[in-house]
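Tokens help. Consider this.
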Amino acid sequence: MRASNAALVSIILPSFDRLRFLRPAVASVLAQSFADWELLIADDGSGEDTRRYLRTLENDARIKLIWLTHSGAPAIVRNAALRKACGEYVAFMDSDDLWAPTKLERQLKQLRERPGCRWSYTAFSQIDERGSPLPEEASRRWVPHQGFIFERLAIGEVSIRTPSVLATRGLIVQAGGFDETLRSAEDLDLWLRLALDSEVAIVDEPLLQVRRHDENHSRDWQSAFFGRDRALQKLQPRVDARRRGLLRRERVRNALKLALTHAALDQPADAVRALGHSARYCWWYPQWWLGGMKTLLRAHVPKRLLDIYRHSSRSA
């Protein structure tokens, strides 16, 4: 529980430069219709321009700055702020995204109406660096899921963005916070653990704008596969046999997708290396053998020959 003089919601915001996006992100927190919050900004070794801006925020008693040596690891930065959090609830924000003004108000209302749920997330929209909607937003499929979502989350059917999440601090502490050994997918790893311990409530409104730009941390696409595999692997001892089988099958699917992506990018050696690495935990799955063969063909057979084969198959 929070101290009697503490804010109800602790907002965790990691920062590292990107000042042009950080300013509007902070402004969207300041514009919240719900005002009983504290904002903990954990700065991961930004340059002087960003640090100068952050110091101007100290005039607001609700804002606390945490200065860190650069690690480049979001889990380390977020955990540093979590350790200072005092609120009954914790909300996560990223330094390049935007909240709608009613974001916290709507989520708190939903959680109060559903006492069995100890965490919540919202729908989101995606914008470019100028704040304009991405063209693919018009056709992006969105399916809301709530309640006990562990299985759906594990197989990738649930779409959760970190700044959409609000959870009780007790649930996050119970789950152990972010895994600092992960360089990517540390958010998925935590959501899976939260989903084991609690139902989730959803506010099916796009109360978050996720910004896509060249400086996104997620641009290192391989690390997302490695992090997801580790998240699935480490949960296996914690679940029953049925869920353990599901997690193993998802590791196979994740490994094949990584290898196939390398092949599609004309990186045959990396595709073979990815398959070889996954063999020790995938070799007994027929799906892996079939997918591996297709990946090797994709990686080593000239594209022109594959196009001729596909054309002849359709014509037969």
Notes: The domain at 9-218 is CATH 3.90.550.10 (Spore Coat Polysaccharide Biosynthesis Protein SpsA; Chain A).
